[in-house]
Design brief:
Blueprint (H helix, E strand, L loop, with lengths): L15 H11 L7 E5 L6 H13 L9 E6 L2 H16 L2 H6 E4 L4 E4 L4 E7 L12 E5 L10 H9 L7 E6 L8 H12 L4 E5 L11 H7 L9 H13 L4 H7 L14 H6 L8 H4 L1 E7 L7 E8 L4 E10 L3 H8 L3 H6 L4 E3 L6 H12 L3 E7 L4 H10 L5 E4 L4 H16 L3 E2 L4 H9 L2 E3 L5 E3 L9 H11 L2 E3 L5 E4 L5 E2 L2
Parallel strand pairs: 1-7, 1-8, 2-5, 2-6, 6-7, 9-13, 11-12, 11-15, 13-14
Antiparallel strand pairs: 3-4, 4-5, 9-10, 10-11, 14-20, 16-17, 18-19
């Protein structure tokens, strides 16, 4: 019986999309190992998971002494699945005889085959130490990035079985580099017949008011998904741009970042004209350097003003060893960009500051460098290498907090909005700017936040710092002075 909602008390009857998914999973002659179902919110996701787990607990797929878990990112979310399944059991005399429900541990026992089901969450530790034959993951799309300790614990625990099955039922993740997106893309590209993947989503360019897009992402629309609710949300999204990303991700099931980037793609493209390399040898130059951890991107961005616009010249370094693995992990073509000359590699598995120092010396040779902004973190290592080769730069310590970053962010935004920049569409810098996210304090001051970023933002940080040490241009077109003071010459 349906345990809650508008259809409470009625016999469970699977919708067409649910039947199609179930048949694809259980009638797969190649034997299903992974099964993905991606649908928009409020399309009976919890009910689908509950029906699935009961099939394995006390139904035809129950196996003697097996374990089954449903996993969610929060305790409350995990409890929803358990509660829904428990209510289904309570409303069915037949299921009540076949099972024993233990609410205190969110556990259901299938009596005929001694099958144990538990609801677990990323907030608890119950995912570790179990060996589930069947794992059903709820809302994997909430996981940011390509890795989750919680999911890893579940997947690796299934290694005890040759016939283990993993289900993931969720709305889409916001970004291509997120875990669930990687799984869905792999299922599509690999054509592995042991993977069943059904994705219901609107086309990327669909209008929010397009009803065909609504039905594409909501297979239960008009049945147990309220059409009126979708209409109201679509109308709100059409009137309020700030709500549109949420509507697209949760209702149209599109990969759309819920938080907006610092600079929109359109504004960045408007500033993508070719730079003039000669301008860096004919005008004062300002730089920002953002050092990386051992195996990430290190970035230096140079800017100069030719009297009309600011020219932007970025440089990037990364360790040579493991380049392809990092490209795969970050879902960014670092290896291709290296071949095309957009990224320099340094020998070994970690950043070699001696190599970076020599590259910086060569790049700045012949330029009138007025200021170099740097984050104090690990900079003493690079500064030592620069001194060893006889390079002394006008260094400006540049904090990453609101005090230093806020005016730099404001100036960078103004330059881009007024189309005062030329960045040459460097693909690595473009990636960093697309990933950059803003954090704002109560006073309205802003800074770049690496924790909120969707990927590498080293180039965006270096560009903001470079802008932060440029002289500002007043209404008459004259330079007023530096944003950040003082400058200290390295000696």
């Amino acid at each position: 019986m349906v345990p809650e909602g508008a259809l409470i008390g009625q016999k469970v009857c699977l919708d067409v999309f649910q039947e199609v998914f179930f048949y694809a999973v259980f009638d797969n002659k190649h034997t299903t190992r992974r099964a993905f179902l991606s649908i928009a919110r409020k399309n009976a996701k919890t009910a689908t998971i509950a029906c699935l787990l009961l099939v394995f607990v006390c139904g035809p797929e129950a196996k003697l002494n097996s374990r089954l878990i449903s996993g969610a990112m929060s305790r409350d979310q995990a409890a929803e699945v358990f509660n829904y399944a428990s209510k289904m059991i309570q409303l069915s005399p037949d299921l009540t005889k076949r099972t024993r429900v233990i609410p205190s541990s969110k556990c259901i026992i299938g009596l005929s085959k001694n099958v144990e089901y538990r609801a677990v969450s990323a907030e608890g530790k119950t995912a570790h130490g179990k060996s589930p034959l069947i794992a059903i993951l709820d809302e994997v799309g909430q996981i940011r990035g390509m890795q989750s300790d919680f999911v890893d614990a579940i997947v690796t625990a299934q290694g005890a079985y040759e016939d283990a099955m993993l289900f993931a039922i969720s709305t889409q993740a916001p970004n291509d580099s997120d875990l669930y997106s990687c799984w869905l893309d792999d299922a599509k590209e690999s054509r592995d017949k042991r993977i069943v993947s059904h994705v219901y989503a609107a086309e990327p360019d669909a209008d929010v008011l397009d009803k065909k897009a609504w039905y594409a992402a909501n297979p239960a629309l008009g049945k147990f998904r309220s059409l009126k609710d979708v209409e109201e949300q679509a109308d709100r999204a059409s009137r309020m741009p700030s709500f549109e990303p949420t509507f697209r991700n949760l209702v149209l099931n599109q990969r759309v970042e819920l938080s907006s980037p610092f600079i929109s793609k359109g504004v960045w493209i408007l500033n993508s004209g070719e730079i003039n390399e000669a301008a860096f040898f004919e005008n004062p130059v300002y730089a920002g350097i953002d050092l990386s951890a051992k195996n990430d991107l290190t970035a230096m961005v140079l800017v100069c003003h030719d009297g009309e616009r600011w020219h932007v010249k970025p440089m990037f370094w990364t360790p040579e060893k493991g380049l392809r693995d990092r490209a795969k992990q970050d879902r960014a073509p670092y290896d291709i960009w290296h071949k095309e000359g957009f990224i320099r590699t340094v020998p070994g598995a970690s950043i070699d500051y001696k190599s970076v120092g020599h590259d910086i010396a060569d790049a700045l040779d012949g330029m009138d460098v007025q200021a170099v902004a740097f984050d104090r973190w690990r900079f003493d290592l690079l500064e030592k290498e620069l001194k060893d080769i006889g390079v002394y730069l006008p260094l400006v310590p540049f904090g990453q907090g609101f005090r230093d970053m806020a005016p730099a962010i404001d100036s960078l935004e103004t330059m881009l909005l007024n189309e005062q920049m030329l960045h040459g569409a460097n693909p690595v810098l473009t990636m960093c700017m697309a990933n950059a996210r803003i954090e704002q304090d109560a006073a309205g001051n802003r800074k770049l936040n690496k924790q909120k970023a969707t990927g590498r933002i080293d180039g965006a940080v270096a560009l903001a710092m470079a802008v932060g040490v440029t002289p500002q241009i007043n209404d008459s077109g004259d330079f007023d002075g530096f944003l950040q003071q003082p400058i200290r010459a390295s000696n």
